[in-house]
Amino acid sequence: MKYVDEYRGSEEAQKFVAAIERLVTRPWNLMEICGGQTHTMIKAGIDRMLPDEVTMIHGPGCPVCVTPLELIDRALAIARRPEVIFTSFGDMLRVPGSTTDLLAVKSQGGDVRMVYSPLDAVELARRNPDRQVVFFAVGFETTAPANAMAVWQAAQEKLDNFSILTSHVLVPPAMEAILSAPDNRVQGFMAAGHVCTVMGYWEYEPLAERHQIPIVVTGFEPLDLLHGAYLTLEALEEGRSGVVNQYSRSVEREGNLPAQKLLKQVFEVCDRKWRGIGEIPDSGYKLRDELAGYDAELRFDVGELVAQESPDCIAGEILRGLKKPHECAAFGVRCTPEKPLGAPMVSSEGACAAYYQYGRHKVAS
After folding, report:
1. DSSP conformation class of 289
2. How many other CB atoms are found less than 10 A from the CB of residue 333?
3. 141-173: b (≥16 Cβ within 10 Å) or e
4. Which letter, b or e, does each residue of 234-251 get, where b requires 16 or more Cβ atoms within 10 Å of its Cβ?
5. Are 177 and 207 in contact (CB under 8 A)?
6. Alpha-carbon separation of residue 118 from 157, 162, 221 (angstroms)
7. What is the pTM of this model?
8. Which domain does 73 fall in, by range?
9. Tally of structural domains, the chain
10. Are residues 261 and 165 part of one domain?
11. pLDDT for 165-223, tens place per residue?
């Protein structure tokens, strides 16, 4: 398939690997931000193709994984209410809260439905005026415009039975938190191309300048990742900082301006807690005050629910790039996709799920 297969060729991959081997003269630590990039990397074995001097660190770019435990418990509390139709993308349905997950609530009689778009939830609200329809709005900047459009559309139609439970997080503040941490090991970033398709990459330029590191906007196919790694390593070897756009077939510096305009109309930046990481200043979106009537957390008064993480799960260390999934004592033993302890084992973008799915629990890497 054009625009897909052409970024998966094994001969071209070997050329990139050979070029990286010629380039690298010392150890380097790179972080790929996005969980989708992590899955491609592990599936294709790219981390094993790279020379020993290059260590890939998996970043916190899995929105499901960083959704706080207490927010999932709030979702569960709302979904149990008889007047509610609770809607979500499929990857949130099996993420464990403190005691259960959304699929279990569904099996117990809760009206929990998987949708493919937040606008599907708006349509449900139109068709069910006697029910409260809630959409679990989780994601990075990539999914935020569609969720913003759902709220905007509901406001235009004055649908008073639609609301969203918001867990939107932003990538640049997370990168700042990683780089500012005393235990940081990251020397160069491969940034998530789909986020930059929406937001552009101008936000990354002051970050790269402040920390004197290279940031390469990178796509998601195997050759994208190898090319992104090469460009990041080339900058490191030459002592260059700044932003490079590998994913130019999709990303422009300014990003998608109409989408950004919509985001500003619906959301405002706020501090946000990240699961396993803690609160990061200015790292999330919340609904603007004039749209607070569409905030499910306020509508159902669940904002005071708090929760405690499982002591057996080291998701926080994995999300911060301090450990790999197979270094967790529970991995593949007490924590599996069938019985997960944490979100990274459930999400389609979770590092633990990638390591398990592609056999890294059988032979440690």
Report:
1. G
2. 9
3. bbbbbebbbbbbbbbeeebebbbbbbbbbbbbb
4. bbbeeeebebbbbbeeeb
5. no
6. 15, 11, 27
7. 0.89
8. 69-170+255-299
9. 3
10. yes
11. 999 999 999 999 999 999 899 999 999 999 999 999 999 999 999 999 999 999 999 99
